[in-house]
Design brief:
Number of helices: 2
Number of strands: 13
Structural class: alpha+beta
Distance between the termini: 63 Å
CATH topology of the largest domain: Outer Surface Protein A, domain 3
Order of helices and strands: EEEEEEHEEEEEEHE
CATH superfamily of the largest domain: Ribosomal protein L6
Radius of gyration: 21 Å
CATH architecture of the largest domain: Alpha-Beta Complex
Strand order of the largest sheet: 11-12-7-13
CATH class of the largest domain: Alpha Beta
Length: 179
């Protein structure tokens, strides 16, 4: 039995859940999400809890049990609270700004880098060096945050670049001078 898969998922009061033809839908104060549940797994609602169960004992169903439970839990949490990912820019002259819905990054290239978020994702810039990515879909929030970081990942010698808040960047020692 999957240790993650057998945990119950609490359903908050403001969230409504529906399961129809292997499609799990959840609606809450922040929005609405749905996910296709793979064959061999079923989601059952018991009072104010959700239980993710295996119908088949195949190898694939055993592999997907914990994954499906986590995905369903993320859907419920997303429509209730939402997710956010914070990034910070380090480097002299590196900055970010919003141009309408678009994010404009000036990070040492000869041109500004423009990133347009999907419609479900909101971007905010705080004091020109902190970027906040918010949304109800954890996968999309993480994907967009990773795309922003990939534009200029932190380099190991001076640590300049875009990093997640709290990320520990391994630093290297520069080359030694002549003796």
């Amino acid at each position: 039995m999957s240790r993650i898969g057998k945990r119950l998922i609490n359903i908050p009061n403001q969230v409504t859940v529906s399961i129809k033809d292997q499609v799990f839908s959840v609606k809450g104060p922040k929005g609405e999400l749905s996910k296709q549940i793979p064959f061999g797994i079923q989601v059952v609602q018991q009072n104010d809890h959700l239980v993710v169960e295996r119908v088949a004992e195949s190898l694939l169903a055993r592999k997907l049990h914990g994954l499906c439970r986590t995905l369903v839990s993320n859907l419920v949490e997303g429509v209730f609270q939402g997710f956010e990912r914070r990034l910070e820019i380090q480097g002299v002259g590196y900055r970010a700004q919003m141009d309408g819905k678009k994010l404009v990054l000036n990070i040492g290239f000869s041109h500004p880098v423009v990133i347009e978020p999907p419609t479900e994702i909101q971007l905010q810039v705080e004091n020109n060096t902190n970027i906040v990515v918010k949304g109800i879909d954890k996968e999309l929030v993480g994907k967009l945050a990773a795309q922003i970081r990939a534009v200029r990942p932190p380099e190991p010698y001076k640590g300049k670049g875009i990093r997640y808040v709290g990320e520990n960047v391994k630093r290297k020692v520069g080359k030694a001078g002549k003796k």
